[in-house]
Write a structure and sequence with these properties.
The complex is a heterodimer of chains A (about 300) and B (about 300). Chain A is an alpha/beta fold and about 300 residues long. Chain A is built from 11 helices and 13 strands. Chain B has 13 helices and no strands. The chains are: A alpha/beta (about 300), B mainly alpha (about 300).
């Protein structure tokens, strides 16, 4: 691809007292990606993010963010990186605009430029009409959008969102995700953490799954699926009457069938593609009754669960 | 850091909290002025320094302004600082602000500075109000020395306030819960303001019993021990300094025997001598404030900035 690496960690480790929260993490994120950092609660996602920002020091290993070391050059890193914490909070007695003004000022953005950018990002996240309403009156979804606006005001090269969809209704989740999907087009690489894969799979171009501080797997979603489902993607359940071993062998002979199990009148066939037509044909041609047939596709959640259990 | 100071100041001056504090402070100065009006005539006879009497005159029921200030300044300091850090932590703004390109110490320095500025505005305003109305009331303008003494008193008051502010900020760094970080400095204030007055004689009497003692040495040792214990309290340090600064005829904070009084000339001592007398109080107060601030600074710099 030849694209630049924005985030790179090498054997990154963080320990609190004796508990290892992040364990020899090797991660690399390319420019222009939407990267999903996944893992169950307590897997070390937030800690990893804090280390990327230089808000927490690693005990071992190195981090490079935009070619800089966040531990040694925190200000340069924070100038280029936007961060939305998990429980994003604002000064409730100030309006949305005033909150963003403060952030713009901390980033030494000039008054005129700040004014322009704030209008732009508030418009972009769709809360321009409440720009002068006090944040105390905002709903959770609006605060989350304001959080995104807050990250975008400084036009970051990398934007990190910690659990941006937590606590939102399904519609809110979709709106937030749509906003994030647009960011790479504006020159911002996105890293988002989540513990719900099915939410982020839609927008993430690649994901990394963390479990107990270790990176279990990293790659694009398709790649991941292929890796995880090497053992077959579909499970087809066939109900028939008194199946014989001969029938099982015939089904096994169909190309792409991985495995056939019998339990009473039920046959479980694990396959790589949807072979319902072929299987039903074989069953009927072998003079067996085909009472019913069910197909189940393993989705990404199953992949996810699989990795969690492994981790 | 200027940005943070500006924002904090804006927060303070638009908050209900500061409004109420201002109200209390002005009510206090009103009360003190009333006491002055009733009683100043009887108190200025011999000493001169009429203008300073505006601040130290008390009525039968009404304590003087400086007594009020000894009590009020800790409350103001605590009220301004008790939720400085942990409220930001709880509302989730701290991690967002720290993700901006600023140094971490800018946040705590900015908050501390804004607190001190707010405190100073309150103290200066109170003193100006009293001085102004007092001037109209008594018609005696301050002398140059009185102005200098009042200015030093003002600086003292701000340092004293900075101690309580620093203490409150320290607890707001230390404790996650706002209720805890409010109650702890209030408890300390109660201890130093009230309980130590009860505890000091008790401890002194236990260590140096005077019940049946007839020798003056024992009585003096007991009194000095009491005073020493009391001086652990910043309130005592501050009120001693106030007394010496604003009542120039006070020439000793220790025990004076009758035989010594005989040879004292009852005139006020010079400014330099007054300052010399309270030098230990001044340095201790500055030291205490510095310790509080340094402790909160170090703790804050080392603390984990997790949102949860």
């Amino acid at each position: 691809m030849g694209r630049e690496i924005v985030v790179e960690t090498c054997n990154l480790t963080k320990r609190y007292d004796s508990a290892t929260v992040v364990d020899s993490l090797n991660l690399s994120i390319e420019e222009g990606e939407v990267f999903g950092l996944l893992g169950p609660n307590g897997a070390g996602k937030t800690t990893t993010i804090l280390m990327l920002l230089g808000l927490t020091e690693p005990v071992a290993g190195t981090v490079r963010v935009c070619g800089l070391d966040p531990t040694r050059q925190p200000l340069e890193v924070k100038r280029q990186v936007g961060y939305m914490p998990e429980k994003v909070g604002f000064y409730e007695s100030l309006t949305a605009r005033e909150n963003l003004d403060f952030i713009a000022e901390l980033n030494a953005i000039g008054y005129v430029e700040a004014r322009r950018r704030i209008d732009e990002v508030l418009e972009g996240v769709g809360i321009a009409q409440v720009a002068d309403v006090k944040v105390g009156n905002f709903s959770r979804g609006m605060k989350q959008r304001l959080g995104i606006a807050d990250v975008l005001v400084k036009k970051p090269r990398l934007a990190i969102f910690d659990e941006p969809t937590a606590g939102l209704d399904p519609e809110g989740i979709n709106q937030i995700l749509d906003l994030m999907a647009k960011l790479p087009g504006m020159g911002t690489t996105v890293v988002m953490s989540s513990h719900r894969l099915y939410e982020v799979q839609r927008v993430c171009s690649s994901i990394g799954i963390l479990s107990k501080g270790k990176l279990v797997v990293q790659g694009s979603i398709d790649e991941l699926g292929r890796q995880a489902l090497a053992g077959g993607r579909y499970r087809i359940e066939i109900e028939t009457r008194r199946p014989t071993p001969a029938l099982v062998d015939t089904i096994k002979a169909i190309p792409d069938v991985k495995e056939v199990k019998t339990s009473g009148d039920l046959l479980m066939v694990i396959t790589d593609s949807d072979l319902r037509a072929e299987i039903s044909k074989v069953v009927v041609q072998s003079d067996f009754l085909l009472i019913q047939m069910k197909i189940q596709e393993f989705n990404l959640d199953d992949i996810y669960m699989k990795y969690f259990h492994e981790g | 850091m200027a940005t943070i100071v500006r924002k904090e100041l804006a927060d303070y001056f638009t908050s209900v909290r500061v409004f109420i504090l201002m109200l209390i402070v002005f009510l206090t100065s009103g009360g003190a002025l009333y006491a002055v009006q009733q009683n100043i005539r009887g108190q200025v006879s011999e000493s001169g320094f009429v203008f300073l009497r505006l601040f130290t005159t008390s009525g039968e029921a009404m304590p003087s302004l400086v007594t009020f200030i000894v009590l009020l300044i800790p409350i103001i300091g605590i009220a301004l600082g008790f939720d400085a850090i942990n409220s930001e932590r709880q509302s989730g703004t701290l991690s967002r602000v720290l993700a901006q390109p600023i140094f971490r110490d800018n946040v705590i320095n900015g908050k501390f500075l804004a607190g001190i500025i707010t405190l100073s505005v309150m103290v200066v305003a109170t003193m100006m109000v009293v001085a102004g109305y007092g001037l109209v009331m008594i018609g005696v303008p301050p002398t140059a020395e009185e102005i200098v003494r009042l200015s030093i008193y003002l600086v003292f008051t701000i340092i004293y306030g900075a101690f309580w502010l620093g203490l409150a900020v320290l607890f707001s760094v230390l404790f996650r819960k706002i209720a805890t970080s409010l109650l702890t400095p209030v408890a300390i204030w109660l201890f130093f303001g009230i309980f130590i007055l009860i505890a000091a004689p008790a401890i002194a009497n236990a260590l140096v019993p005077v019940a049946n003692a007839t020798s003056p040495e024992v009585i003096i040792r007991n009194a000095e021990l009491q005073q020493m214990i009391m001086r652990f309290s910043p309130n005592t340090l501050f009120s001693e300094a106030t007394t010496v600064l604003l009542l120039p005829q006070v020439r000793s904070l220790g025990i004076v025997t009758m035989s010594q009084v005989q040879f004292m000339i009852p005139n006020p001592i010079s400014l330099g001598q007054s300052i010399l007398l309270i030098w230990p109080q001044l340095t201790s107060l500055i030291g205490l404030s510095a310790i509080c601030f340094a402790a909160s600074y170090i703790l804050f710099m080392r603390q984990e900035i997790r949102a949860t």
